[in-house]
UniProtKB/TrEMBL annotation:
Keywords, ordered alphabetically: NADP, Oxidoreductase
Name of this chain's protein: NmrA-like domain-containing protein
One Pfam family cited in the UniProt record for this chain: NmrA
Entries under Gene3D superfamilies matching the protein: NAD(P)-binding Rossmann-like Domain, UDP-galactose 4-epimerase, domain 1
Domain NmrA-like span(s) in chain numbering: 4-181
Keyword Manganese tagged: no
MF GO annotations: oxidoreductase activity
């Protein structure tokens, strides 16, 4: 069934959501709140048990990341609204930032096309990440869990990242994928605190890219919450693999990205 119309029309959305077990939301980032709020209200009116809001990314409970990032604050608004309405439950599929899509835009500090990299010194933490395709498959696997298993994740996160690596390890993985070495790259170094100050200055100047650069910078700071490997429950992830979720290798993802 396909219904078309204004995505802010709660009546239309309520009609579309009738009888559904779950609503999955993934609006464009600039409309993260404006398009999700009416959908969440409509899902509540329709009695939808579960909502997967646009939570395909970082740990939703990483308080330091949330404090520093407007995008994550907006995501929290949606989770809070779902809980406030008290009808549906949200589930976050926590995979970390998208590795492949964000590499292409240089947001990891690595410009593959021009073989340039800026290593943020002092940002030595590891970050969990996944590919876009794996995120979709992981979400489908989570929703394929038996009802009793799925109910354990009401207003919680299912942690199922693919990768766990530092920025330097990511650069090394790209060098392996491209058959290059340090001497083939222009590598600069910038203190992470200086880089964050630059981002904040640019944000004040309404630079559109700066908030996203800051988002990745903050992830690599130890203790920020970008590393949630300790929250991954191997026995729960195994259930997803038994359903059919395949593991992905960083080498394969990066080779596809640069091909």
């Amino acid at each position: 069934m396909v219904k078309s119309g204004d995505l802010k029309d709660e009546s239309l959305l309520t009609s579309a959501f009738q009888g559904q077990d779950v609503v999955v939301l993934m609006p464009p980032l600039p409309q993260l709140v404006s398009l999700q709020e009416p959908a969440v209200r409509a899902a509540a009116k329709a009695g939808v048990p579960y909502i997967l809001p646009a939570e395909f990314g970082p740990d939703p409970f990483a308080s330091k990341l949330i404090e520093e990032n407007q995008l994550l604050q907006d995501k929290k608004k949606i989770r809070d609204l779902i809980e406030e309405l008290g009808v549906s439950s949200w589930i976050s599929v926590a995979v970390g930032p998208f590795l492949d899509m964000n590499i292409k835009s240089g947001l990891w500090g690595i410009d593959v096309e021009n073989r340039k990299a800026t290593i943020w010194t002092g940002a030595v933490g590891k970050v969990n990440a996944s590919s876009v395709a794996q995120t979709g498959q992981a979400s489908a696997a989570v929703l394929s869990l038996p009802g009793q298993d799925l109910s354990r994740y009401k207003n919680k996160a299912f942690y199922v990242p693919s990768f766990h690596l530092t920025q330097k390890e990511l650069l090394q993985a790209f060098q392996k994928a491209t058959g290059t070495a340090d001497q083939d790259w222009e590598i600069d170094y910038q203190d992470v605190n200086d880089a964050l100050k630059d981002c904040n200055d640019k944000i004040q100047q309404k630079d559109a890219t700066a908030p996203f650069v800051k988002f990745f910078l903050a992830h690599f700071r130890e203790g920020s919450g970008g590393d949630f490997e300790s929250k991954v429950d191997a026995s729960e992830v195994k259930k997803l693999h038994e359903i059919g979720l395949q593991k992905e290798a960083v080498d394969d993802v990066l080779k596809r990205t640069v091909s």
